User: Fold these one by one.
Assistant:
Number 1:
Amino acid sequence: MYNEGTPIAQGGEAINEAHGIRPPLPRAYYDRPTVEVARDLIGCVLAHASAEGLTAGVIVETEAYVAAVDPAAHGYGGPTPRTAVMFGPPGHAYIYRSYGVHACLNAVTEPAGLAAAVLIRAVRPLCGIELMRTRRGPGIADRDLARGPGRLCAAMGITLAMNGADLTGGTLWIAPPHDGSATGTIVTTPRIGISKAVTLPWRFVLAGSRYISGRVIGG
DNA sequence: AGGGCGATTAACT
DNA sequence: GTTAATCGCCCTC
């Protein structure tokens, strides 16, 4: 049931079904400086076991947001009901509605009391590709299924109702890279789609990946 | 390939 | 009333 579609093999990688996905990263992983976590999450595997089936993908694009020093971050200027999860303990999902339309997923970082998180902006589909296509639309190319934070949540069935979910033990989790080896070169760029702190180099992408939002970088 | 624009909701000024 | 951590569609080059 979980083996829907053929996993995409790229660069010799091929992972099959849920068996290839490892247990969640521990809470201590997220209890670190946010920029460090954002960089380290490139190559890790985001997975969601829903009632409809399993979907998973390799994280290829992230951004760091640290409210204490970052006017572009939600939570800058103090907590609000929307951003409460960002001020909570690390290792939880902060999910917000973007432009009144899309859901976007963050992994909360740093100790409770500090509002910080990593926006997961894109994954390379790995498992449940046909389920992703069912959710996104029949004509969508594999490359476009989860390329962008809103598309990613749509493809993986991640909704606002899951805001606050524990990423270290549940149906939504992030696992270490499959083979533990280096995933490739990581490129640093300014963040996308913001109007404040526009030059801060806190976006991380996998060089050469065609599964990131925007143009392919390096490779 | 790349730019312009409407959609649609809630937080915030 | 305005803005927003976006996306898909339509247009022109």
Note: Chain A is about 10% helix and 25% strand.
Number 2:
Amino acid sequence: MLCAGWAFRYVQLADGARQIQRFLLDGDLFSSLSIFEDASHFSVKALTDVRICGFPRSEIREKCYGDRGLQSAVAQSCVADGRDTAKLIAVLGRCSAEQRIAHLFLHLMERIAARQVIRDRRYPLPLRHQHIADAVGLTSVHVSRVLSLFRERGIVVLSEGVLEVIDVRALEGIGLL
Amino acid sequence: MLCAGWAFRYVQLADGARQIQRFLLDGDLFSSLSIFEDASHFSVKALTDVRICGFPRSEIREKCYGDRGLQSAVAQSCVADGRDTAKLIAVLGRCSAEQRIAHLFLHLMERIAARQVIRDRRYPLPLRHQHIADAVGLTSVHVSRVLSLFRERGIVVLSEGVLEVIDVRALEGIGLL
DNA sequence: CGATCGGTTGATATGAATCAACGTGCGTGG
DNA sequence: CCACGCACGTTGATTCATATCAACCGATCG
């Protein structure tokens, strides 16, 4: 579990490309489902300084049998993960570059806002263009172009690790699934 | 649960596009995780004649508490689903058209072979080009072109609901993750 | 017999990748 | 303290993969 900081879960492809599966925020398990797997098929990398804590899988599994609350919590975590993952498939399969990035931002905004108060529509977002690219299947060059566009059109500005959302409506309009 | 026949799980996007998340074979749950969700966010459609049977979610959940075998089976099903889903994300995010289709074929071949004896490397595969397109994020026109290429190169031939695999090695070579 | 559906093929358009150059800020070592 | 190298972002030119548009064909079905 990631206790504090930012990280991401990803896989490295044979040709060196990297696909980011999920950004991890404080309180997130690296992967809920991996509680039930003995071998992980992903890697995790920190984006900021982090604090993590670990649990033996077998212990969690064991506790699940006796504890309905825990079992239900684990299940809900898996479901949330699965829902996001399913949405990501649709985004990668069917959306344009602008839509992909809009979706990523909306998704992260929701998760960040669930953890902290947002002032002035400014969301902490310690990502390089390359991370965004690896998350939504684009090139960092193209991410840069799209972000320039968003900036020009007065939609969002990402800079210095902060995402400033100027026109949420426009962003949601682009991101319509 | 799909007891017999072929089906697929998908979502319909706002612009009418369709993203297929998973093809369902006999014995598959529509979605393992949906045991723990009360609202489904996907649709299912049959590809062939099918037989299905249903269970009340609450009953399954209830049985899980007492029955380690069932709980473990459900967990394994969720894990398998999650693993395939994660792989699909990498494929959609980072692979070319040929690689996407090769992956889909290899993935389905594996699942089909787990259920029935394969003779002459001929796999039953009742998909239209449009289904392949909707599964891997391409156009049916482009799927047609890629399949022509595969045919010319003597790799696989898909026709009349049967996938004939002529050169598995070549297919695996293309599909390398 | 005509209509519809699925597949093929060709011409063209377009979105994103690639290649390349440049600027800027920053850390590091001299 | 300076100079250099490096990571990151930006921008322009060009290429490439895939989409789009359109025509055609064969099979199937009412």
Note: Chain A has a mean pLDDT of 93.
Number 3:
Amino acid sequence: MNITYKDNNIILENLADFKLRHIFDCGQSFRWNRTGERSYTGVAKGHALEIEQSGERITLFDTTPSDFESIWYDYFDLSRDYSKIKSELSRDTVLREAVPFGSGIRILKQDLWETVVSFIISASNNIPRIKKIIELLCKSFGEPIHYRDRLYYSFPDFRTLSALSVSDLSVIRAGFRDKYIKAAADAFAADEGAFSELYSLSTEEAEKRLMSLYGVGSKVAGCILLFGLSKTDAFPVDVWIKRIMEALYFNGSADNASIQRFARSRFGKYAGIAQQYLFFYARENNLGV
DNA sequence: CACCAGGCAAGCC
DNA sequence: GGCTTGCATGGT
């Protein structure tokens, strides 16, 4: 990868395995929107960013080398060799076919607290509405961020949300999920250390602790492990993954726990990345609808 | 062609 | 089974 800094923009060249559409359209994050033919704009870690891709050339607008190094390089998981992972996973015949459909997928390293709340909101919900609720949450309780003559909002921290009542949260129209959000904020505020500890725990142990949160079950915990804690062996099973796994590996019905067990033993430490290729493959091909 | 009523959506309790 | 809400769907 070639990194240059020119006119307040960071330009990346010769970066393999990176496609914005694959990264932002696989259900892992909810705060990025298409703002141009080839660009997306979003907010992460308290910073807004517009990022554009034309072919192999990626431009991060109006940012600094310092922010690139301390935020975006890590956020976009640029140190990971996805080519190697893809070739390892492609020993599986199903994945060999699925991987090319999402060849530019990267697992974003998102903020833990943000993923906890975002995936609590995702339960029994659809993406446009999840995005709306999160946008309302940020507009209502986040901090304003000025970027390129526009106003954006940070994701509100847990202390801010913990100070609210459940009824204060009704403005975001999260429905029955509002009490889960409040409970998660209280849990983080009560013992922040218990959650920063999760990074160093095994996937199983971290999953157990996440599932002790009100409103966090197996699927939501899996997403938090994968997207918020970078536990690449986590394999969240949602209805799409369930359908495609049943079709391609089980030749019939299977319960979620069996699917998760099977996937983790078959795909190992990169099961979660395999899950993303399978998810994208299922969506792109309208499988299991 | 509006409008309404029903179902329902990447789960969890 | 119930939960909130908004939206796609199909019927009037």
Note: The mean pLDDT of chain A is 94.
